[in-house]
Amino acid sequence: QVQLVESGGGLVQAGDSLRLSCVASGRTFSSVAMGWFRQAPGKEREFVGSHRPFDSWRYYADYADSVKGRFTISRNNAKNAVYLQMNSLKPEDTAVYYCAAGGYSSVPADYDYWGQGTQVTVSS
Fold first, then answer.
1. Closest CA to 7 of 109, 104, 82, 107
2. What is the pLDDT of residues 93-105, one digit of tens each?
3. What's the CA gap between 75 and 100, in Å, rounded?
4. d(CA 67, CA 50)
5. DSSP assignment of 26-84, as one string?
6. Where is 117: in which H helix or E strand?
7. DSSP of 9-40, one letter per residue?
8. What tens digit of pLDDT does each residue of 28-47 get?
9. How far apart are CA 52 and CA 31, in angstroms?
C-alpha cells in the first residue's frame, strides 16, 4: 500500500511558475514509478509526465507534448518525494493535478495509487 499526498497548488498568473510536491509513504520509494496527471472540469484525466526507474540508480522522465519544455519532474528519494516544476504556465494548464504511483505508461488505469489532488489555477 502506498499513500500519496500532494501540495503546492494555487492561483497564479500566466507566465508564472509553480512547484507541486507529492510525498509518498508505505513502500520503498526509490523503486516506484511515479506519474503526474491533471483533470480540468468536464474533461478526462490526462497524462502530464512520469518518472520511472531506468536501472538501480537512474530514472527516465517523459512528458506530454503539451507540457514538454515547460514542466520538469524530479524526485528526492531521501524525502520520499516527487516534484512537478511548472514554468511558463498558461490558462489551459488550469486543472486539478494528481500524482500517481505504480504505473509505467501514460494511461491512468495503469497506476495503482493516487493522491487526493491539488488545484492549479492560471489566470490570463
1. 82
2. 999 999 999 998 9
3. 13
4. 12
5. SS-GGG--EEEEEE-TTS--EEEEEEEE-SSS-EEEEE-TTTTTTEEEEEEGGGTEEEE
6. none
7. -EEEETT--EEEEEEEESS-GGG--EEEEEE-
8. 788 889 999 999 999 999 99
9. 8
